[in-house]
Every structure is written in C-alpha cells, then in structure tokens.
Amino acid sequence: MANARTAHRGVDEGDIRGAAAAAPRATIGAAALETLQAQDLQCVVRDTAAALSCTVAVSLPALKLTAQWPPAATDADALRSVERYALALMADAATPRPPELPHVVPVRAGAELLGAAAAVSTGCICSDTDGWLEAAAAAVAAAVAALMRHTAGESSAHAKRSLLLMFEEREQVDPDALLTAAERLGYDFSAGGFAVGVMLERGSSVDVNLFNDAGLFAEVAQGRLMGLVPRRPGDGQEQAARSLASLRESVAVGNVILSSAPAGGAQLQRALLESAILTELLADDRAQLTGQDDTYRLLVGILIREPDELYALHARTVAALEAYDAAHDTELKHTLEQFLAHHGSTTETAEAMSLHRHTVGYRLARVHDVSGLSPYESEGRERLSLGLKAKRILLAEERRLARLGRALDGAARASGPGGPATTQ
Q1: Which CATH superfamily is domain 311-405 in?
Q2: In the chain, where does the domain assigned CATH 3.30.450 lie?
Q3: How do residues 354-387 score in pLDDT, each as one tens digit?
Q4: What predicted TM-score, i.e. pTM, was given to this entire model?
Q5: Which pLDDT value is given to residue 244?
Q6: Residues near 65 by Cβ (< 8 Å), separated by ≥ 6?
Q7: Residues of the chain with CATH 1.10.10.2840
Q8: If you count Cβ atoms within 10 Å of the first and of the last residue's Cβ in the chain, which end, N or C, has fewer?
Q9: pLDDT for 63-101, tens place per residue?
Q10: Which helix (H) or strand (E) covers residue 302, if one does?
Q11: Which architecture characterizes domain 2-154 according to CATH?
C-alpha cells in the first residue's frame, strides 16, 4: 500500500494524462466531451476499483462530475449517498461520514473541497481501503487541475465547435452531458432552444464571435455556421426568428435555417440535425429551399427517424430514372426536374432546355414508361416530386456526413496519440 500511495500521490499531470492515453481511443466526439468532463477522472476511478476489487465512485458536485467503476455497477441509492455526502462536505467540512458509506474520503484541491470518493460495495480485498481512496482523491485533484489548465488554454471557439460536432453525431453521447457541457460554456438550455443553420454567401466570411450573444455558434465548415439558441421562458419561434433576422442584417450573412419548433433535452440533437441537413440543402440550387419548406422538413424528419423509409421512397419513384439515364446517357431525370420547376408547362420546359416541345413530350413519356408514374397526372407528379426531394436530401446528408467526418478526422489528428481516453 505504501508503494501504491506514493505512486498515486507522486503523480504529476503528465502521469495522469499518460494514464488516459493508455486507454483505448474514443471517437473524436466522445473525446472532445471527455476533455470537457475530465474523463481522466474515470481512469483514476477504474484503477482504484481494480486495486480494491470493489466498486468505487467519485462525486464532484462543483464540477457536475460523477464517475464510477465498474460502469453501471453502483446501486443508485449508494451513488446518491456519495453525492449527498459530497454536497454536505462542501457545505461543512466537519460533516461525519454516513453509516452506509464506511469507506469514503474527501477530494480536495489545496484547501478547496471538490467532493468525495467512496468504496460503495463490500468485498474489498485491501485492508487499507481508506488509504487507497485518499491516494485516488489526490490523483483526481491532479487530474482536475490539469483539466482546468487545459481548458483555460483551449480557445472558446474550438470548444464550441467541438460541442456542436458532438450534437451532430448520430451516435449520441449522453444528452444530459452535452447540455452540461453547454452550460459550462455559458449557455443554459434548461428551457429548451432552437437550432440554427447559416449558409454564408459564396466567398464571404463572418466573425463567428458576433453570434456570441445570440447563442452557441461555431463555423463547422467553410461557409457554414451551426448554432443552438437558448429559449427564454415564453419565447416562441417568431421571437427567435426576429432575433435571427436582426442578426442576419447586422452581419450580412446568407440564408438562415431555423428549427421548426423549440426543442428541449435530447430533442436538441434532432433539431440540430434538421437544421444541418436543411442548411446543406441550400448548396443545391435545385432544392429551391425557402427556409420554411414544410415538405422538405417532413422528409428530413423521416430521414432522422426512419432513414430506410426515405431510401424506399427514392427507390419507388426516381431511382429507376437515374439507372436508365446512367445506362443510356439520357436526361430523363433532368427533364422531369425542369418540367416540375416550370409548373408542368411543356412549352416553358422546352424553352428553358433549348429543346423542341415534342422532344420534351417524348422524354416525359419515357419518364412514365421507366418509373411507372405519369408526370402529367397529379398523383404521379406529386410522387415524382417527393422522390426528387428525397434524393436531394439523401445527397445533402452524404455531404453533411462527409463534412462531419473531415472535421472529426482533423480534430483527431490535432489531438494526437496522447488524446483523451475512451469513456468506459
């Protein structure tokens, strides 16, 4: 135990970071959140639990951090006891340990109390359990100190961008953890919020710091900003839209996409995904997106909830046209798009495509033959229009995922081999 105590209490910040680096790597989204959440804490708790062969929990209420090992092994009541004791300690350092926690020690950073570390199950094999916990508490304090210095050196813009990228990832980390991370950056989404996508005008740039008062914003790619705007009690979409319209005029940005309704909790991720996909659609001139197109929003909602349904819609409508065009070097799909864009007028379509009206008519007849849907009939025209929109959304989602992948890969390279550890 003496060697173990020396090893723990003698660690410096490099040792703590090294212990984290030795664990398997997470996705960059999880890794960024780990930086915000001090997941080096998890490494210390894991090692202490392994040494004691029992469940160990640490609660740091001031930092809104809790860690335990093994994961999910702690009885909920026992974990709440650790959290209550940690809070009591911070209010009164002389608070006696509760009877249900025979092995618990305070976690201190100098004279400041951060919380408590406890063995919360029976069967510890070490006779000096409290000694091990004291050593773990010292290591936790060192890890927190390292985190604070690291976070202080990290630019606010980078932290915001990392957090928004995490919101965009489909493999969702704990939504409460995301909201807590946002709160640490100064944004309170307890009353919900709106997701915003901004497409800048081509070749233009904007200082994202101008958006700080509006909400949590970051430039996630060249010419694209994403943001989450906290909802104040009583605010509706109209108020958010007015605020963003004023912001748009003041910084001369391009199109702005606002999520269709205020969202709270885990729904903020869905709202951000909706806005991100709709913003990506703005890059497609054929989408003719006004920012409030209900049809596109409905189809994007299907993509988010049931992506197979959107793929099926595409397969049942315009996929055959795409295959036919690829095999025969024709332009049936493009002709259909022009026909729908010109409100079903063969004459206007012919003029726009510099074709004879009969040529357009022949192509539209082939559209009917190949797809089984007539562009001249209201039902067929509607289904073909939905299929074209579905395809544009699927392509927009491919571009969004490619952008997100590049951003995450770049962040992973920047973090290097000594980046944060996987959350276990």
Answers
A1: PucR C-terminal helix-turn-helix domain (1.10.10.2840)
A2: 2-154
A3: 999 999 999 999 999 999 999 999 999 999 999 9
A4: 0.63
A5: 63
A6: 37, 38, 41, 58, 59, 115
A7: 311-405
A8: N
A9: 777 788 877 665 677 788 888 888 888 888 888 888 888
A10: helix 294-305
A11: 2-Layer Sandwich (3.30)
